Amino acid sequence: MNKYTVKNFDKEFPNDEACLEWIKNHRYPNGIECPVCQKVTKHHKVTTRPVYECDNCGHQISPLANTIFHKSSTSLRTWFHAIFLMASTRCGISAKQLQRETGVTYKTAWRMFKQIRSLLDEKGNMFSGNVEVDETYVGGARQGKRGRGASGKTIVAGIVERQGNVSASVVPDVKAQTLIPMIQDKVAINSTVFTDEMPSYNRLNQKGFNHEVINHFNKQYVNGNIHTNTIDGFWSLVKGGIKGVYRHVSPEYLDSYVNEYEFRYNHRKDEQPMFQTFLNQIKI
What we know:
alpha+beta, 10 strands, 3-stranded antiparallel β-sheet, 9 helices, elongated, 5-stranded mixed β-sheet, 2 domains, Nucleotidyltransferase, domain 5
């Protein structure tokens, strides 16, 4: 992956105008088609507003419409700076850190991160070949039952294709009627699905999958090609990041945080900098 430093950022996006121009070029790579003239026409930036006006008829178009920046009173450069900071680390940064670095209020910083994370939802992946499935429990340390079934924690189920992508989301429970349809929706028939020994996965063979089981209860973690180490590695990234950066995430918003880690994982091999990958998620 190519590096993109703060010096690169300052040079490419020195002010709001540069950010707006980037969004305009990103959304209209072939030029702006004027709906009145019904053809691509030359447009110029209106001095006092973030809009472009057709040189022929005067019709105005806002590149910010239907984006996370629409009607925001926060400067575009601050938005881009937040995206840059967020993309520059494997684990993300907290809203408190953004508040310190940009001078916005904590409420504004939190809202910006919520909006940016909404760009990172990629749930369209399909999986095939060798696929691992597992679930984990996310939540702070508390008294009572530990491990699978721990009360008061949020369940996240995940699917990962070995040497490929991951998909993870919050689920209400780990019953077969929850997990099996999720697998059927995401994994191609005849794929090999690796899981632990949880009974909820027992019917996978009947559903057209080659089901291989590793018995974690008996302290078995690798048996030849049979293991769930890939998805376990992803869970380590998620839990380590949440504990180290965010400290605590409410169940209501956990899905959006998981989306962020999923997005980073799925684009870890991109040649372009992660910041540009984040920016390219802005709606076209």
